[in-house]
Amino acid sequence: MKDLRVLERRLWSLLPADVLLARTLTHSALDSEGRLFACTSDLQLFGWNLQTCEVIHECSLIISESTSQANESSDSDSEEGDLESGFLEPDDSVVDFRFVPDLEAFCIASAKGVLLVFDVESKDIECVGMLEGGITALAWSPDYELVALTTGKQRVLLLTQEWDMIAERTLDGQLPAVPPPTSEDSEEDSADEHAQDPADESACPELVQNPCLSWRGDGKYLVVCYSDPAQPGGRIFRVWSREFQVTATCDEPNGLTGPIAWQPTGELIAAPRLLPNRLEVSLFERNGLQHYFVPLRVPRSAVVQQLAWNADSDLLGVLIQLPEEATSMVQVWTRRNYHWYLKQELVTGVVSEAAPLSFRWDEEDGMVLNLLLADGNFARVAFLWHVHEILAGSSIEDEANVYVTDGCEVLCSTFSKAVVPPPLCSYRIRATLATDTSTAATAASSAAGKDSVIISVGSVVNSVGINHNSGALVFLLSDQRLVFVPPATSLSLDGLTPLFAQAPTPQHVYSLHDLPTADQRALFYSHVCVIDEQTVLLVQSGLTVSDHTTESVLCSENTLVCLRFSFPASSSSSSLGQAVLESTHVTPVEHRVLAVECDPATKTVFLSLADGRVMNYQVPCVSAEMTSQPISVIYKDGLVNYTLGDGSSFFAEPCQWISPALFGKDMEKSRVVLISRSQSNKLFVDGHLASNFCTSFTLHPNFVLFTTMKNNLHFITRDHIPRVETLSRYLTLNENKYDDSIRTLERGAELVTVSPSQIRVVLQMPRGNLEAIYPRALVVTTSKRLIAAHQYLEAFSLMRIHRVDLNLLCDLDLESFIEHVALFVDQVTSIQWLNLYISSLREENTCQTVFLDRFAISEELPTAAAGPSSSSSLPAAAAAAPPRNASTSAASSSSIRPVPSTVTSKVNRVCQALRSEFLSRSLDSFCLPVLSTLACECPPQLEAALSIIKDLKSQTEAESGSTSDVLDVDALVEKKQSWSKGGTSTMSADKALRYLMLLVDVGQLYKVALSMYDFDLAVLVAQKSQMDPKEYLPFLNKLRKLPTHFQRYSVDLHLNKLPSALENLCLSKPEDFSVIIHFIQEHDLYSHALLLYSKKPLCDDVDGCRAVCKTYADRLLRESPSEAAILYERAGDLHSALKAYQISLEWRLCLVTAEQLSLGDEEMNALHEDLVDRLADMSQFSEAFQVALYHLKSFERALQVALDGSLWNHAHEVVARAKMPEWSTSRIQPAVENAAQKAIRKLQAHNERFERYSGRLVEVKERKLNLKAEYDQLQRDWQIGIAREQAELNDSQHGGDGSGTTSIYSDASIYSFASYSSFYSTVTAGGHYRRKNKKGSRRRRPRVSGREGSEFEEEFYVNELKEMIPSRKHLDEFNELLRELIRLRLQEQADHLHALVHALIELVKKVTPLLLAPLITSSTDHVEDDPLGPDASPEEWAKAAKRADQHKFMPRHTTQSLLPGKGWTGLSLLS
């Protein structure tokens, strides 16, 4: 679906007009620096510099008469004389002229067998050989290592680049049988061989009779086409291998004529073929069998002079000569999907002097064609693949029309209707009418046979312009005519509208040769841009005539020509009307124009120039007054620079494809943004780089679609003005698993167009076939638009077809959906679709997960706020329910109340809203959706769903009159038949139950039916399961015979509903209460039993409640004695409560309970002694002191407890109360001294160990930092070594033999990261590692040890130092001890203790920054520019810790927590 568009055409005038009178150019070629050299008909050699338009060389190849006589008299050959006088005779001619890159020289072969080599730099001409019999054809291999040629003696020779003979064969592949004849015999034989039969000459005088050669692209095979002596007038070809052996022969000529060309990829061999009814290019395989053919759309009398494939093998150039019109042309063909399209026809001028003589494809750029013209000009035409489609945003964008040129026809495919595979199409548009003179030869051609082709000489459509607002077309023909085609219209036949529109017919034509120009032959038009119905913009390139006739001149820069036409009514329907030119505005452009595109909304024209500049063209305003002569003015102010998003007017590189697009949803803030792509596959959006690998792009009303070389399809939203931050995500791979802005494509797929109405993206594969996809991004966007417009039916159908998550219907706006739920039910009337939607609901907000990339939550989506839950209006049987029994509120066996659900649940809110709407209409019609809403709620309301089924069953039984309390198998079959009938209701219980079983497991439904204590409903469910009726029917019949509460207890116990079973067991009031106690103990239902006996009706059973409390207290006595004591009190067992309080150390409650028991003095004293002992054993010295002093009233015991607990203030209180001051010196002072000695010894050992560990930690960190510095230095040295070796390697490749260059990898092996990392890992620390064992791989914590040199030594010391930091409790203890030492005037011990504490605090302050710093690992991803080093201070370590992104640990203490607070007074007392 791609067309070949002319990107630019450059034209050089090589020879002045007076020189062309005596000679013509015959051969031309470009050298490696782009300089052009050409041979003339009089054997003159010229050279031109195309950049400066100067003649750089001129010499003659003809040998002079004096030199010829000297050569006859003397065998000596002077090199200088040959250079001055030439080598060729005047009657000789050049057969081949080609530049050989390896030799930096041109190879010239003449018809008389002279081989010349012209050196480009020295300008020397050397004769490298002369062949007897002359040279008829010559071809170099693609690698320029071999040269093959044919001679006039019917020989094929294979030579090397040094002109050494490799092999010689006859044309039929045989070795020469006789030695070469003498020169006289050779001339006679050559004259006889070149003599033609007069009959053959008269039959086809213009046919090429000389042999033709062509190599395959890889140089392994050569094809030789020549005239077969056995069949006069016929030609055959043979395929030769590189070893010069014939591998295949086409021995059925059937009209082969002219040249031959082998496709570089090696698939096809092209050769012209003349058939009785047409002229074609036959395509053969390597084995000589015909594969296909290309019917040339020219008269049969035409002659194919030259065939050539481009370097990419996708374009075939054909040089055709028309003897009757004495002109020639170059046609460019391409193949897509096994159909050959005629894409371009180059007819340079209207006179024969400007016709092409020869052409040659550029060897590096396959889209560039070099032409040598008969008028002495040299043309260079660059092509570009382009898709002619309607721009998105125009009024006819929904048609998705794509136009493809094919000769004189334009094929239109309407992809919004159907994806028509090429070469088929929706309709065809002929560029000219059938009665046009250019197609008059069709009738004569059709008379020759039924396989005739449409003759399209001069009427080939080279370019197509589209009016994106109306759909009108403008064709630019190869003969420089403009054809105006109206929009296509759809006709209704008998009230039926056809699928495709009717093909429009061209109405008017205008010849661009009628424009007033300096030189009609040199003008060329391209880039057709239709602005409106009457205005057309063209890019004109022409030849500037120089005043110096002896110097060549360069083609002038492009010129914009804006033409305005009027279209009078045509008088005849059999011919095209003539368009009338009203005005012409000419605007010169400084640089070549690469692309022209018009914005259909604003009618602003955008231009992309060769220097990367972007410009706007302001369409000139023309007065409405008509004049007799057309207006022709120079419109210089038409171009202005266009400012891109980055503020400049230049792309990063020139762009050949541009397209304007409107970005922004808000019309006030929206603006036109330019989308562009360069030939290096870079995509720019408003000047910002969006992709480096873009292969194609197209526009959608909401997106910009583009494909990449990674075979992905990307989407750029047009809702917001593009920014660099948003476009940068397309330069990297998005790892979001829910991202639907990327779609994987088939390899090589490219965009053709997109149909917004059908959400269809059309892609073309490399082989030419089309594929249509429906990307999820477009589907979701369209669904969003339909949901916002409350078109729920269209949105539901679209999402269902493309399997989009249906939760989007409510997640987009939950409140709006609930508000319009009635509209949703009105539109979506299908019960199946309603059930599908309800069953697909889930709590996940898909706008924030699945469709996160499609919606900006903060800007587009309202959050799903919790609102009031819609009330569920179930039928009478399901909405209200009597109490389950006389004392509990539950549902009866006939109906059930829905379980109240959380109003914040999205699923519950939607289900309740839908259920309310269904029930307000008709339960009979929406029974299945109502069941779906009940089953899909969280938690599922299965009891309410089964209640509805039960009502349907009851209605059926009431109508049939069949009831039974006890069932057997036969009765079950009769009931099943009655339930399936359904009575007068359209919904039967059997059908409803079968549907509910699709949503819920039948086993779960059976359990729910049993839990409802409805055995008939349980039978109805059980019969749908795999249960055996002989098993569950006796079980159900047995349950029917039990008392009500014991029956329900049995059911609950069967269903393992233990709390409910306990409730029913208690209500059954068994004679032996131990049964209940045993049930509670067996199933651990103590809490539930307490709850039951605290409410009615069981709260009146006091004995039962006490028994339960005592049983529960016995259970908790070991685990929680305090709670057991409370239960013992509730059960009235105060002695057990006292014991429990005594065990739990609740001494106050224990004393209160003892008072309630009225214990004696001895018992109270024993209790107090026991409490003191228990509290002291648990280190609760303060509580033990209170019991001993205030309740036991023993000063001796209280003092001992205070001294044991270091409660110095409490000890002084006892001394004061007991009035025993001698105890201060005899009891308190020794205890304080002993405590101080213990604290001093402990602090000394602690400080020594702390200092040793901190010093070792500093050493470990310094060693690791040194190793890291060495590692970084080695890495930098390795990179420098690699760069140095690469530079030396590049120098050796450009010059020198490279013998002194060593491998970069051999020298760089000493810097191997793997070997050094293994060494470095032995001294690194931190983290977890993976260890594999035989049982499997699992993550384990490595054993951290403090062994010197260990891998985890640093982490060990960090953890140990953290544990050694004193806590606030320890500091308070030291503070109290210091205060007591000072009070007792033990100054020496106080100073010693204070010094140790102060030293510990200073050590902690010093080491804290080291502990806060992250662990040093072997990772190279450390913080750059880090000032840490071996001499780093603790402050620098602290700063480094703040700069770290993540800490390996969270410190237990901070520096501030280590300092004494307000309670610390020891320092102030000692200062």
Please outline what is shown here.
The chain has 1471 residues and is of the alpha+beta class. The protein contains 44 helices and 60 strands.
If you had to describe this structure to a student in words, what would you say it looks like?
34% of the residues lie in helices and 23% in strands. The protein has 1471 residues and is of the alpha+beta class. The strands form 15 sheets. It has a five-stranded antiparallel beta sheet with strand order 26-27-28-1-39, with no helix packed on it. The chain is elongated, with a radius of gyration of 51 Å. It starts with a strand and ends with a helix. The C terminus is likely disordered.
Rounded mean pLDDT score: 77
Our count of helices gives 44
Proportion of helical residues: 25-40%
Strand fraction equals 15-25%
Please identify the structural class as seen in this structure.
alpha+beta
Poorly predicted regions are 73-85, 182-207, 437-451, 544-555, 624-628, 856-903, 978-984, 1294-1340, 1418-1434, 1444-1471
Radius of gyration: 51 Å
Summarize the main sheet. 5 strands, antiparallel
Question: How would you describe the shape?
Answer: elongated
How many DSSP-defined strands?
60
Structural features:
alpha+beta, 5-stranded mixed sheet, 44 helices, elongated
Question: What topology emerges from the helices and strands here?
Answer:
Blueprint lengths: L2 E11 L3 H4 L4 E6 L5 E5 L3 E6 L4 E7 L4 H9 L5 H7 L8 E7 L4 E6 L3 E6 L5 E6 L4 E6 L5 E6 L3 E6 L4 E6 L12 H12 L3 H6 L8 E4 L5 E7 L7 E7 L4 E5 L10 E2 L6 E6 L4 E6 L5 E6 L7 E7 L6 E7 L4 E10 L2 E8 L9 E6 L6 E6 L3 E10 L1 E2 L11 E6 L2 E6 L12 E4 L10 H6 L14 E6 L6 E5 L3 E5 L22 E4 L12 E7 L4 E7 L11 E2 L4 E8 L10 E2 L1 E9 L4 E6 L6 E5 L4 E4 L13 E4 L4 E3 L15 E7 L7 E7 L5 E3 L2 E4 L2 E6 L3 E6 L3 E6 L6 H4 L14 E3 L5 E6 L4 E5 L5 E4 L2 H13 L3 H10 L6 H4 L2 H6 L1 H7 L3 H9 L17 H4 L15 H4 L26 H16 L5 H10 L5 H19 L8 H13 L7 H11 L2 H10 L3 H8 ...
Parallel strand pairs: 36-41, 42-46
Antiparallel strand pairs: 1-28, 1-39, 2-3, 3-4, 4-5, 6-7, 7-8, 8-9, 10-11, 11-12, 12-13, 14-15, 15-16, 16-17, 18-19, 19-20, 20-21, 22-23, 23-24, 24-25, 26-27, 27-28, 29-30, 30-31, 31-32, 33-34, 34-35, 35-36, 37-38, 38-40, 40-42, 43-44, 44-45, 45-47, 48-49, 49-50, 50-51, 52-53, 53-54, 54-55, ...
Helix pairs in contact: 8-9, 13-17, 16-17, 17-18, 17-20, 18-19, 18-20, 21-22, 24-25, 25-26, 27-28, 28-29, 29-30, 30-31, 32-33, 33-34, 34-35, 35-36, 36-39, 36-40, 36-41, 40-41, 41-42
